[in-house]
Design brief:
Its EC number is 2.8.2.-. Helices cover 42% and strands 13% of the residues. The chain has 347 residues and is α/β, with parallel strands linked by helices. The strands form three sheets. The chain has a four-stranded parallel beta sheet, with helices on both faces. It has a three-stranded antiparallel beta sheet with strand order 1-2-3.
C-alpha cells in the first residue's frame, strides 16, 4: 500500500451513508460541550474522549475503511507531544535505503506531508510523494483505533510528554493557528488560565490527556511486541539509543555497517529541531487543514509546528502553583499503572 503517494489517511476515504448516519446519530446522543480550542465549535464525548465533529468524522471513516498492511507502522500521540519529530525520525529510518541524503523529501516537504494523518486531511504543496512509505500517524485514542489496526500485525509507536510542556505547546499552537474566511471574525482568544482549567479537567482535543497515555501504556504492557511506548524526554536525552530501538522495532534495523558509516548521526542531524526549523519549506511554507462539517479550511504556516522543541519550557508560562497542580493530577491519574513521566521540579 503506497501510503506516501496516496496518503492513506482520511483524505482517501469518501463519505458513505453508513459513516454519515453513524456520525449524525453519535453527535445527537453523546455529551457535547462548547469548544474553546483551536477551530473546534463543539466537542463531543466519544468513547470517553473529547473530539470535534471533524475529528469524529475522521475516526469513524478510519474505523470503517482503513485496511493496514502487516508491515505498516502507526505513529500515535496526543497533540503537541512530539508528533512532528517522531514523524521525521520514522520517515528517515524507513526511507534511508531508497533516498539520497541530499534529496531527502524532509528537506523540501513538511513532515506531515511525508507521513499523513489517518483521520485528518492535512497537506501542503506539493502533495504527491512517489515513495512507498508504510507509515501513518494518528491522534486517535487506543480504544477508538480501527479494529483493523488492533487485529493486524502492524506496529504502533506511541510518544508521550510531560503534561506541563504538552499543555503549554497546545496553548501556544492555539494562538498560532487561524482559520480562513468567515471564521476569523468569530475567533476568540483563549487566556492561559482558562486553557489550564480545561486541560486539568480533561477537556481538550483528544483528552483527557492522561487517559490517552494510559490506553497505549496498558496496551504496550500487554503486547510489547506490537507497541513501543516512548517518552519525549528520553528521546531528547538518548536520541541515538532510541533511534536504533525504533528502527529495530519497526522492522528496519540498522546494520553494523550503517552504524560504522554514521547513519544514525545523519538521521539525528537531518531530523533535529535546529535543522528542520531552519529549512525554507518550514520557515515560509504553508499547510492546509481541510476540516469537516460546518467548519472552514484552516491555513497556517509550516513554522507553526516548530516553536522551541525544548524540555521544561513550561517554566516560562506556568506559575509554581499551576505546575504543582498538574504534577499532582499526573501522579493521581497514573497511580498504580507503573507509568512514570519525566517531570522537572518547579524550582
Amino acid at each position: 500500500m503506497n501510503h506516501g503517494s496516496k496518503s492513506n489517511g482520511a483524505e482517501e476515504y469518501k463519505s458513505d451513508p453508513k459513516t454519515s448516519n453513524k456520525l449524525e446519530e453519535i453527535m445527537s446522543t453523546v455529551p457535547k460541550r462548547k469548544g474553546a480550542w483551536l477551530m473546534f465549535n463543539d466537542l463531543y464525548l466519544y468513547e470517553r474522549f473529547w473530539c470535534s465533529s471533524f475529528q469524529l468524522e475522521g475516526i469513524l471513516r478510519a474505523q470503517d475503511h482503513f485496511k493496514p498492511q502487516p508491515n505498516d507502522v502507526i505513529l500515535s500521540s496526543t497533540p503537541k507531544s512530539g508528533t512532528t519529530w517522531l514523524k521525521a525520525l520514522a520517515f528517515a529510518i524507513t526511507t534511508r535505503s531508497c533516498v539520497d541524503e541530499s534529496t531527502n523529501p524532509l528537506l523540501t516537504r513538511l513532515a506531515h506531508d511525508c507521513v499523513p494523518f489517518l483521520e485528518f486531511k492535512l497537506h501542503s504543496s506539493p502533495q504527491k510523494l512517489n515513495l512507498d512509505v508504510p507509515v501513518v500517524a494518528t491522534h486517535i485514542p487506543y480504544t477508538s483505533l480501527p479494529k483493523s489496526i488492533i487485529n493486524s500485525g502492524c506496529k504502533i509507536v506511541y510518544i508521550c510528554r510531560d503534561p506541563k510542556d504538552a499543555f503549554v505547546s497546545l496553548w501556544q499552537f492555539h494562538h498560532r493557528v487561524r482559520p480562513k474566511g468567515e471564521e476569523v471574525s468569530a475567533w476568540e482568544d483563549l487566556p492561559l488560565e482558562d486553557a489550564f482549567e480545561f486541560f486539568c479537567e480533561g477537556f481538550t482535543p483528544g483528552g483527557p490527556y492522561w487517559d490517552h497515555l494510559l490506553g497505549y501504556w496498558r496496551a504496550s504492557l500487554e503486547s510489547p511486541e506490537k507497541i513501543l511506548f516512548l517518552k519525549y524526554e528520553n528521546l531528547k536525552k538518548k536520541t541515538e539509543y532510541w533511534i536504533k530501538k525504533m528502527a529495530q522495532f519497526m522492522g528496519y534495523p540498522l546494520s553494523l555497517e550503517e552504524e560504522d558509516k554514521g547513519v544514525v548521526q545523519k538521521i539525528i542531524d537531518l531530523c533535529s529541531f535546529e535543522n528542520l526549523s531552519n529549512l525554507e519549506v518550514n520557515k515560509s511554507g504553508k499547510a492546509r487543514l481541510d476540516v469537516g462539517i460546518g467548519v472552514n479550511t484552516f491555513e497556517f504556516k509550516n513554522n507553526t509546528y516548530f516553536r522551541k522543541g525544548k524540555v521544561g519550557d513550561w517554566k516560562n508560562y506556568l506559575t509554581p502553583e499551576m505546575a504543582t497542580r498538574l504534577d499532582q493530577i499526573t501522579e493521581q491519574k497514573l497511580n498504580g499503572s507503573g507509568l512514570t513521566l519525566h517531570v522537572l521540579p518547579n524550582a
